[in-house]
Design a protein that fits this description.
Elements (H helix, E strand, L loop, with lengths): L3 E2 L12 H6 L1 E5 L1 H5 L7 E5 L2 H5 L7 E2 H5 L4 E5 L6 E5 L2 E5 L5 E3 L5 E2 L1 E5 L7 E6 L1 H11 L4 E17 L10 H6 L2 E17 L10 E8 L5 E19 L1 E5 L11 H10 L20
Parallel strand pairs: 1-2, 2-16, 3-16
Antiparallel strand pairs: 3-10, 4-9, 5-6, 5-10, 6-7, 7-8, 11-15, 12-13, 12-15, 13-14, 14-15
The protein binds zinc ion.
Length: 286
């Protein structure tokens, strides 16, 4: 079953995991389709795919400003993999390898970003929990195949990472991540945002929880490796409609087991078993 295409989108040659099609309402668009696709509550918009990132496509097609026309909460990266993009309350910031956080000019291009017009339900209070317990708690309160989350409050510890800006010819993402910078901040007031995708979405997206964080005083920010909670509130926005803008030459395809493992190593917020969302049963053999 092919994905439905937007009116001006293109879907030629796509091979999509049927499990993914069942789990999500997936709409592929080109640049023009994306520009005509208004932001809608509980819709998720992304530019390009994680598989394209794994394939060293770091230049980007849309600007951060164009992506943010589709949502006010999200994450991603910048052209040439110039840091970790975090979008909160309609403002874009980038966390770099020196641990700094800077505002992002709307004209900056992005090779991968996911946003949603965040429309959550009531928040849930979460106290005194390590990272793994936090992810289990989020799974318990997040319905549906795909959820967006915002977690705000005080964290005992944030273990963050960022990646260095790359030069052409671009190396593959697995090599870049091997050279990532990691740091920790303790007893910090921060906001964490991100998404959980089912494991069948590997390739299109990062399976499991993908989280980026920034300190509320804007002193630091990055991709979350671990987040130990002191006292936070978590807001969840369950979504099932995903609109993907595909740059020329990028298609939606499933990830083979080797790529899935690489994506999980590179991007998924670590869980004890490295599983994706529990909303779906484990894959059958083959
Ligand atoms: Zn990330």
């Amino acid at each position: 079953m092919p994905a439905r295409s937007a009116a001006s989108g293109h879907t030629a040659g796509m091979a999509i995991d049927p499990e993914l099609v069942r789990a999500l309402h997936l709409v592929a668009e080109d640049r023009r389709g994306a520009s005509e696709d208004a932001a809608a509550v509980h819709h998720l918009f992304q530019t390009s795919t994680v598989a394209a990132l794994m394939d060293s496509r770091y230049d980007g097609d849309l600007t951060v400003g164009e992506v943010m026309a589709h949502g006010d909460l999200g994450l991603g990266t910048l052209a040439a993999l110039d840091g970790e993009l975090i979008i909160v309350d309609g403002e874009a910031h980038v966390g770099r390898t020196d641990g700094s956080l800077s505002p992002v000019a709307p004209g900056t291009t992005t090779p991968f970003a996911v946003v949603t017009p965040f429309a959550p339900g009531d928040p849930v209070t979460i106290l005194e929990m390590d990272h793994h317990a936090l992810l289990e708690r989020l799974d318990a309160i997040a319905p549906g195949a795909v959820s967006a989350v915002r977690i705000e409050g005080t964290f005992r510890r944030l273990h963050l990472r960022s990646v260095p800006r790359q030069q052409k010819p671009y190396p593959p993402l697995s090599e870049v991540v091997a050279a990532q910078a990691e740091w920790e901040v303790r007893d910090v007031a921060a906001v964490v945002v991100g998404f959980r995708f089912p494991r069948e979405a590997a390739g299109l997206e990062v399976p499991g929880w993908h989280l980026h964080a920034m300190a509320l005083d804007h002193s630091t920010g990055g991709h979350v490796l671990e987040a130990d909670v002191e006292s936070v509130r978590a807001w969840i926005d369950a979504t099932d409609e995903v609109h993907v803008e595909l740059p020329p030459g990028v298609q939606i395809g499933g990830a083979d087991p080797a790529m899935r493992a690489e994506i999980e190593r590179a991007e998924t917020s670590p869980t004890p078993d490295h599983a994706g969302a529990p909303a779906h049963p484990p894959e059958s053999s083959g």
